[in-house]
Structures are given as C-alpha cells and as structure tokens.
TrEMBL record:
E.C. no: 5.1.3.2
Biological or metabolic pathway of the protein: Carbohydrate metabolism; galactose metabolism
Organism listed in the record: Siminovitchia terrae
Name of the molecule in the record: UDP-glucose 4-epimerase
Cofactor: NAD(+)
InterPro entries the record matches: Epimerase_deHydtase (IPR001509), NAD(P)-bd_dom_sf (IPR036291), UDP_G4E (IPR005886)
Subunit structure: Homodimer.
Family designation: Belongs to the NAD(P)-dependent epimerase/dehydratase family.
Domain NAD-dependent epimerase/dehydratase positions: 2-251
Superkingdom of origin: Bacteria
Catalytic activity field: UDP-alpha-D-glucose = UDP-alpha-D-galactose
Keywords from the named record: Carbohydrate metabolism, Galactose metabolism, Isomerase, NAD
C-alpha cells in the first residue's frame, strides 16, 4: 500500500489516478487547497494534516504502507514572499512530523515533490541537477530545506528517497475528469483559458523587460500525467530495493515565453485573447528550463506531451467545467 500525502491536490490527484492502476493507495489530505472530488474513488481517503502526529500514528499502525509520496505543500511564489511563516510551517515543519512517523514505523521509502524554484536564478540555458541551488523566494527555500533534511536522514537513518524537481506542471487528465483548479487561481495557463472562456476580462502579463527574446518570462511546461508517470517509475526504483538518495529534474527541455504560451492557447482554442502588460511579479526568475537527461537515463522517464497537448487537454477540462 502507498500513502499519498496531498493526494487531493492537482498533481497528487493525477498521480493517484495512475498509481491506482497497479497499487493500493491511501490518500491523506487536509483539503486546504485540494478537493475530495479529485481523489479516485478506488483510493482510501483520510481527511487530515501531515503535521498531525496522532493521525499519522494511526495510519502507519493500521495500514501496511511500503512507501510515501509527499505532495502536500503550499506552492505559490508570490504568497510565500508575503507569508513566509506559512511556507516554513507547512512545507518544512509539518514534513518533519511526517518523516519522524515514517521512521518510527520503519518506513524508509519516500518520494518528495520539489521544484525548479530551488535553483533561483540559473546562469545556464538548460538546468541540470548539478547546478547550484540558490532559491530567491521562501517557497524555493522551504523545498530546498527539506531536500537537505532528506540527505541527512538518508545518511543517519537509512532513508531511501527520490526528490522530483518539477518545472511548470500544467494540463489535465485525458479523461477530462480532473484538471487544474486553484482558488484563487494564479497560474498562467488556467488563467489564460478562464479568460478565453469568458470568465475573466483579460490576461495580465507580469513583466516585459526580462532578459529574454520577447521580454517576458520563459518557463518549461510539463504535462501533469508525465509528472505522474515519473512518480510511478521513481516508486518502482525505490521498491526494487537499491539504496537511493537522488534528485531528478522533470521538464520538457523546451522553454516558452508568457507571450508564446498565450499564442499557443489562442491557436488551440481559436479564440483571441485580450492582454494587458503589467509590472513584474515578485520572486520570478527570467528563465527556467530543465535538462531531464538524468531522469531519462536512470528512471527511463521521458516527457511525452508537448505544450500544444498540454493546452489542448487543459482546454477540454476547462470547457467541461462550464457544463
Ligand atoms: N504569469 C503572467 N500572468 C499571470 C500568471 C503568470 O504573466 O496571470 C507569468 C509569471 O510571471 C511566470 C509565468 O507566467 O513568469 C508562469 O507563472 P505560473 O504562476 O504559472 O508558474 P510559476 O513559474 O510561478 O511556478
């Protein structure tokens, strides 16, 4: 049985949908940003917090858990700058409680959701895992702190772990049953698609004076199902028994500017967007594009879906939400 903490969130719920095809799954989620309706009905669901010692004790004593996947985090760069306490409390302190309970119950396999934000402002065009980690916002720092904790726990307590550093997760499940929905929504692709559906007046482009080809920020967008598949491969690698303490980037290896993403959304939907250009958003680096060569070589993982596929899948889901 696999415990998925944060399995009612966007990336967690998409992973549960893939994982449930081959494993028994139990989801723990406090529903602070997730939705029970996103959790596959074949999974066992427990509402609770990953920082709640009592709930964790009960789960680890009652269920034969072999590995834990941890998606439960606050993940908004701007919010982390305004409210860092929330980020260090939820992302670091509560994670410590989870890890302690795992070790108390001799559960040693752990998959951790990390982020490209750990790199800060990289000075290479393709970021691989050997690049320095100098995050520029509390969100990235909170994730990096847990990465360091895992490294120490592996040495001291024999924890086996895989850290997956996501670039920009986007898109929706092929069934169009689940997709990306945050409240309030701050992510670029859902914001554009909500606008094209008439749910927002316009799109604001944050910053036009970055050192990029058209002045807007460049990101590497990766389909959520590709991310989910990487978790399954990481789990198989951990359960195969070899000691592991590894970090992998997950991205497409191709960067798109904010303007280019809007262009692709217009092309996929056939609808013209209304755009306003505004100031930079705090904490945003100009360009984040992954080299995912290590994940390909060691886990056998490859991103299958390109930006057009990502946006087409997200568009199918957004349209289904208006019915
Ligand atoms: N962005 C934008 N307008 C929006 C939302 C986002 O211009 O309404 C930009 C944002 O500044 C960043 C990129 O789009 O450069 C991706 O932002 P998102 O919040 O989707 O992901 P992040 O890179 O912060 O994880």
């Amino acid at each position: 049985m696999i415990l998925v903490v944060g399995g009612a969130g966007y990336i967690g719920s998409h992973t549960v949908k893939e994982l449930i095809k081959s494993r028994e799954v139990i989801v723990l989620d406090n529903l602070s940003t997730g939705y029970h309706s996103l959790v596959d009905s074949k999974a066992t669901f427990i509402k609770g917090d990953l920082g709640d010692d009592l709930i964790l004790k009960r789960i680890f004593s009652e269920y034969p858990i072999k590995a834990v996947m941890h998606f439960a985090a606050n993940s908004l760069v701007g919010e982390s700058v305004e409210d860092p306490y929330k980020y260090y409390q939820n992302n670091v302190s509560a994670t410590m409680t989870l890890l302690k309970n795992m070790l108390d119950h001799n559960i040693k396999n752990f998959i951790f959701s990390s982020t490209a934000a750990t790199y800060g402002i990289p000075n290479v065009s393709l970021i691989d895992e050997s690049q320095p980690t100098l995050p520029i916002n509390p969100y990235g720092r909170s994730k990096l702190m847990v990465e360091h904790i895992l490294e120490d726990f592996a040495k001291a307590y024999g924890l086996n772990y895989i850290v997956l550093r996501y670039f920009n997760a986007a898109g929706a499940h092929e069934s169009a049953e689940i997709g990306e929905s945050h409240d309030p929504e701050t992510h670029l692709i859902p914001i554009i698609l909500q606008h094209l559906l008439g749910k927002r007046d316009k799109i604001s482009v944050f910053g036009t004076d970055y050192d990029t080809k058209d002045g807007t920020c460049i990101r590497d967008y990766i389909h959520v199902t590709d991310l989910a598949n990487a978790h399954i491969l990481a789990l198989n690698a951990l359960l195969a028994g070899n000691r592991r303490a590894e970090i992998y980037n997950l991205g497409n290896g191709q960067g798109y500017s904010v303007k280019e993403v809007i262009d692709v959304c217009e092309k996929v939907t056939g609808i013209k967007a209304s755009i306003e250009y505004s100031d930079r958003r705090a904490g945003d680096p100009a360009k984040l594009v992954a080299s995912a060569l290590k994940a390909s070589e060691e886990l056998g993982w490859k991103a299958e879906r390109k930006l057009e596929d990502i946006i087409a899948s997200a568009w199918r889901w957004h349209k289904s939400q208006t019915k």
